[in-house]
């Protein structure tokens, strides 16, 4: 406030009511009591030292009502607002020896009585210690302006204020006298002569010390003030406080007064508030505190709406697949409680897609390096999996490189022909070659653990089918959600016109090789009996020409062939559901869209056809290409086709409408990959990046090279295989920045290889049983010879082998080992001799001869059979056992009988392959 302005205390009119017969109301008004203005600090008015010196008081402290302890009411007005509310037409208040000045009057010549002097003048008691209390304090008489009341009091006199009367109510204003005088702390001068030196007091009295000594009374008086006056008084003190004092107060008040509204409000309201913030503000807000970060990062509604509002919500179950992948990874992370709860996958997905959309376009100089690979051979396959670059070539080799420096991690040697198909899942790699074999590799060790034979020509395409939830239509027309397949499968297509389905071995499954390296250069078709392979499930014949492309998801397999047809298979039952005809020339590419229940195929006839998987009909025929459509790609929103006519075309997979034609290459498109933001395509010595939404070229990643063989990208990484002169090169780009270490890329087609997509296999009884049998057979070969005598004794008790059909068995309980069952005890000799389809052993109880005239109900005990090889259509999960209590568990079960091809320590196996092994 200014030095010439004073705070005022405007007393509320006193109302006295006397009721006799009539009611008389007397109202007495009082002129405002000017309060003494506070002096300015003695130091210079430096705004840097006194930052609040000229601060404006809030309106709530410039005028507010007061209620005194005795019930009296008043209004406090600070001098900054003046007396605007005083009525000009009011009569001038005056009294004996005083009158109120008008605003336009000059009061310099008028005698001025200070507030303290006025109180003392009209007080009833005087303090005898007044002078001692004010000792050392400068007199304020004459410095306070005490304006007389403007209106004469009516009906009552202004009560006198005596600050020294102990019986009076506590005054809201600090008393000029304060509390009783403190004891003298300065020692008296000792009695001595004039010549004795006077000792100096240890502390000289001054204003600061005197104020400090009166601090207890000041605190008591401050506590007696109403809260509005306390606020006004404190703010006035702060305006006269230097900056160091303010900083100290700030350090104390800030944590005390802090209130986190985000943590106090209900979650629904918090989510609504945060929904109005852009993602950049949310990112900064999440760094305010741990509680804010926990609330923001875990809000699924917030990030889902943000994905949709920024147009990066793709649909087609891609978001759910990402979430499932993140949850699968967390299950195998450190189980200790983290400092912060993990972010919701949608928040991580938003960051990933935002970085993918911005970094690839806005990073003008991504990190790039090149290194040679495979000499001068063609790179036939290129994949990026779990931070590994895996390339295959027609030089028979498979190489694994580091994307950080291009170092060769390991080289996988074993194929005897060019490798033309690759697929990876976690640390397992599957490869197909012109040597007609399928090999399984451990990427951690580089070891080939399995070699599958069975195809009679080049394995041209393959895929790993991972368990996922799919819609299954029942016989009654109802649709249920089930997980298929039960454990991961491998599907291979060959130039031998057929496809095969295999069980993907787990890391702890026994190794299997249809032939060993000791066999030398032998034809796998001559030495491999696929029936001996426990991992083989189905052989899918039907195509009349080479199988050129395939795609598989869930339990659906789509294959394209040079016979101009597309076939749809159920890989769980091995049946062909549809034969899709319409193409007039060879089919070179297929993609599968399980979300829309569609499949797309590209052909040498220049068309792309969209097929309905439920009905087997062609929904759309996409025309425009003038040459072979050799490549197809599918994302949730886009279908992209690449042809030998040097163009790429972008289609709407729902309607078949053409969105863009990418025409900047001058040669056949040799490779491409796309997502929801971009397309990377290689041709005629150039690698281009396109904006898939606009259909325009963004930049050239490679120029002036001989050709581009392959290109693949995921997240921040991009890898291309090209040919420069006589050398084959791999180029690697890193589009991320230093702060993008947690950038999680989305793989092509949303196929993740985390644990959620695998199964422990316990629910796939057929595959597990075959593998366990094979493992048991291998263990039997390694038994010690000291058990041979015992085996020979068991064999001597039996001399023949009888074959029976499982259709004649009694349906009963499942035996513990899953391979033993009871036969009907009432079977004639003719029936017994005619049952030749099943391969079983007849296990007779001790002392019971093998029957030669049939089995009859009069037999004393039932007969047990052991299954050697089932030829029945009944699935292995439906075994047969003896239903009564006198069942087979009481019988001694001897070993299988020996034949010419086996001994008790070497079980019988079939085929040339087994004999070689």
TrEMBL record:
UniProt biased composition (Basic residues): 907-917
Gene3D superfamilies on file: 1.20.1280.50, YVTN repeat-like/Quinoprotein amine dehydrogenase
Ranges for domain F-box: 259-306
Pro residues compositional bias, start-end: 169-190
GO cellular component: cytoplasm; nucleus
An example molecular function term from Gene Ontology annotations: ubiquitin binding
GO biological process, one term: ubiquitin recycling
Segments of skewed composition (Low complexity): 191-203
The name this protein goes by in its record: F-box domain-containing protein
Taxon lineage: Eukaryota, Fungi, Dikarya, Basidiomycota, Agaricomycotina
